[in-house]
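Figure caption, in words: inputs first, then the predicted bound structure.
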Amino acid sequence: MTLDIEYARSLDRADPLAGFRDQFVIADPDMCYLDGNSLGRLPKATAEAVQKMTVEEWGGELVTGWSHWIDMAQTVGDRLGSAVLGARPGQVLATDTTSVNMYRLALAAIKDRPGRSTIVVDEANFPTDRYILQGIAADLGMDLVTIPNEDPSVAEFECITPDLLAEYVNDDVALVCLQVINYRSGARQDVPALTEVARSHGAYVLWDASHAVGSIDLQFDEWGVDLAIGCTYKYCNGGPGAPGWLYVNANASNDLQAPIQGWFAQRDQFVMGPKFERAPGIRGFQIATPPILGLTSVASSMSIIEGAGMAAIEAKAAAGTDFMIELFDAWLAPLGFGLQTPREAKMRGGHLSITHDDAAQIALAMRQLANVIPDFRKPNTIRVAVAPLYTSYEEIFIGFQRLRDLVATGDFQSAVLRESAVT
Ligand SMILES: Cc1ncc(COP(=O)(O)O)c(C=O)c1O
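Bound structure (pyridoxal-5'-phosphate present):
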């Protein structure tokens, strides 16, 4: 096998998901879009669905539309649960942002463990999760213990093993917060085993699945997960700022009290009575009016995922990142790049982290000079992703070829930073 474009095309011909690319808007065919781990492409059907919702439902039905919009956080949540989370109905709400959902579930879990005073998080966790927990710990006078998994002598690829977690969990821990796929390294954690370590001490685990949802075949019910959160704008292609989701296992939901008692969590919402009385089940976690335009978009993207199936999507994420690693070994390793993601496909999701001393400048040059879109994470990481429904092997090949050439020639040095704080 020769590592050339014909080989990449032969992989596309053999790809069972290849036909799905056509369901997405590809505005610039020359662009190699390797940032689906940050914002997914626009599905053509979503543009139509949102237009139709806006004109026909909002425009035509006005306030009477609420008769069928009112439960959409739940109905779209159930759809998301079955399509991408491995969740039976009644356990998912599609609503608010990942950050707000994180706060809500973290506080509910801590309050359900009175007398415990420790929260555990990992150093490599996404900033919003760490910041929110810092705030909660300060408000409640709790200890926030951080696992130092950015230190390679503590954890390879930032990965939390059950043995490592066991060193930090004891009977004083109320809550552990971890990511299913680490946002920077792309390493995948053993969800059932880690959940069990915490549970054996009576602690909850809250899983942030933002980088896993829509890229690997999550099975929350089967894995014994209690609490999870995530977004829909990455591999689920819900669009910029599309609603996030929260999962509360049915066994836990009636024990937990969300910290904001909004009117959508009220048992008889439209009686509008004087006193809050929590609705049973997952509805008890909904705060307020659902974002109907965003939910329309999420429902539309779920149709595409349902058509492909998460098993096939996970298989393509594995094969596509395998192909990226082949190209990395042949072209990038000799140019001083490192691989910060596990080589074993079962240990990762849809993205790779490649490191380089000049990563910030190279990532800038990829966008500015080569029409290749990755993203950059401090201090030295470029993330490149396979979004299984639309990333082609040819696109990966050309993207990596352009990256190789930028660095081999030194041309990347000529990119000039303009005004944007977003990397
Ligand atoms: C792992 C992870 N958690 C949380 C967030 C924050 O999401 P939001 O801004 O939608 O609350 C992100 C955003 O990219 C993320 O990657």
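Residues 97-99, 126, 128-129, 179, 183, 208, 210-211, 231, 244 surround pyridoxal-5'-phosphate (CB under 6 Å).
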